[in-house]
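Justification of resources, computational component.

The compute hours requested in this renewal are based largely on the per-chain cost of generating structure records like the one below. Each record pairs the submitted sequence with a full structure-token output. That output is archived, and it is also reused by downstream analysis tasks.
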Amino acid sequence: MFLYYLKKGLGRLLDKIVYPVLGIAMVSLIAYAIVMGIISWRKETEALDKCHRYTIGYATEVKRKTLYYRYSTEGENFNGSWGQKPRSWKDYFKGNFVASKFLYKRFLIKYSCKDHKISQIDWSHSIPETVERAPYEGWENIPSQLPKNKF
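The structure output for this chain reads:
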């Protein structure tokens, strides 16, 4: 009999105190992760907007609709990634993405002057075969000899 009332009392305790506290903790944790992701994204965007240079990047692999690339500047190698956004749910389920078309191609990479790990692919220009490599410190501006892409 004593165990019955103890079990019943613990059930009420769980229902009234423990479960709501766990729910609040989970919601808080998710909100914290979202806020930190937004802050990180804004930092990277601001770093690229304030001071950036350009170099040549090379697509190395495609995994799960994400294009991975590498680039070098000032004697150091860096890696980055670009995840293609589907145009529609139909494209998403078909797996009809263009990322695989860019595998082993060269791109113009825009990277931060202060933190070279922060980068993004600049789709505005293509890299012709005649341009073998970028300068050691990269280009300050997009070189005029690079042809514009026609998307």
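The mean pLDDT is 79. The chain is about 35% helix and 30% strand.
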